[in-house]
Amino acid sequence: MNVLPPFWTLVETHGDELLVHARRLAGDDAEDVLQDALLRALRAYPKLRHADHLRAWLYRVTTSAAMDHHRSRKREVVTDDPPAPATFDAYDDGAFESLIEPLNETARTALRLRFVDDLDYEGIATELGCSTVAARQRVSTAVRTLRETFA
Amino acid sequence: MTPLSESLLESVAAAAVREGLADAIFTRLSSPIGRLLVVQGPEGLVRIAFPEEAEDHVLAEVAGALGPNVIGSDRELAGERDALSEYLEGDATVLDLPVDLRLAHAPFRRAVLEQLREVPRGETVSYGQLAARAGNPKASRAVGTACARNPVPIVVPCHRVLPSTGKLGNYAGGPERKQTLLTLEGVRTP
Predict the structure, then answer these.
(1) How many domains does chain A have?
(2) How many CB atoms lie within 10 A of CB B57?
(3) Which residue of A lies nearest to B56 if distances are taken between CA atoms?
């Protein structure tokens, strides 16, 4: 059995890039998302069975936290206020975000996981809680819709 | 790219402590005897390391013994930081922080360190005397080892152990630090 490194060593090594990742997914809310992600990670960390791929694991936890954040925000905006504008444009992948803007949130999430996080379909399936086939379908449908939109 | 802010990390640490998720908390403290790594477990200080020790190694040792959720926070250890700073800067004469000796593995070593805690500020003890107090007068060499591997130096005052030759003797943190700590307590050293 390999021993888990001290959690804070991971935070000090990967924290900055996780914040970048959180910012891609949640814009101005990145710090809230990352804080939530690190707490989730702390709850799960002692139960991990091995110390492999910890960086990838932290990315996944951050992605999940960002997606839950989007969901809860969506619930919030069923009020009088107009939806908060997307804040992604301020960052280096603003072009990507404006490209996928015409799509619905499910399709956008699938594309971000595929092309921003560079996950394979299995990874996307884990994030979305669906089968690998369904994950592949969502990505390809999203890409097709985009093609048609810009055709 | 904005780096991770200190305040975000402190918020995570505070929430983790509130939720009971932290196995140990550490802080890095600048002091007159160099930068100290101070680690607190659930029952008290488990480890103080001088800068010569590799931090990764020390924290891994702590994670192995207490659990992997080792968290960094200055704020959560504010009390310990103040107590150590005041003592090392000569502003306070007592340093009474709870200590957890679980990183001293052998029972005799632990007995030695527990006896050592009773040696008051400004007083010294010889290796032989300390061996006798720990229950084995002939074990002065083992006392030397116990002191050399003291997981919580300064608070468990292994700097107060001197050879009966009247010289300064060894110290895990180097003889200069031993000298400084003894001078701070008003002990005249050779």
Answers:
(1) 2
(2) 10
(3) A9
Interchain proximity B59–A9, CB inside 8 Å: yes
Residues A67 and A112 in one domain: no
Closest-CA distance of chain A to residue B141, Å: 33
A79 part of a folded domain: no
Looking at residue A143, what is its pLDDT?
Answer: 81
Residue B166 to residues B16, B173, B189, Cα–Cα distance (Å):
49, 19, 8
Q: For residue A127, give its domain range.
A: 95-150
Average pLDDT over chain B reads 94
Give the residue ranges of chain A where pLDDT is below 50.
Answer: 1, 83, 85-93
Give domain status of residue A90, yes or no. Answer: no
Strands of the B44-49 sheet, one edge to the other: B44-49, B34-41, B24-31, B70-72
Question: Do the beta carbons of residue A139 and residue A130 sit within 8 Å?
Answer: no
In terms of domains, do A67 and A107 share one? no
CATH number of the domain where residue A41 is located: 1.10.1740.10
Among B9, B12, B59, which would you mutate to test the A interface (most chain A Cβ atoms within 10 Å of its Cβ)? B12
Strand partners, B24: B70
User: Which CATH number belongs to the domain containing residue A109 in this structure?
Assistant: 1.10.10.10
What are the catalytic residues of B?
A: 158
* Cβ-based contacts of B1 with chain A (< 8 Å): 16, 20
B67 interaction partners in chain A (CB closer than 8 Å) = 46
Per-residue pLDDT, averaged over B133-149, amounts to: 93
Please indicate, yes or no, if residue A134 is contained in any of the structural domains: yes
Please say whether the beta carbons of B112 and B106 come within 8 A: no
- Predicted local distance difference test score (pLDDT) of residue B84: 97
**A8 with B3: Cβ contact below 8 A:** no
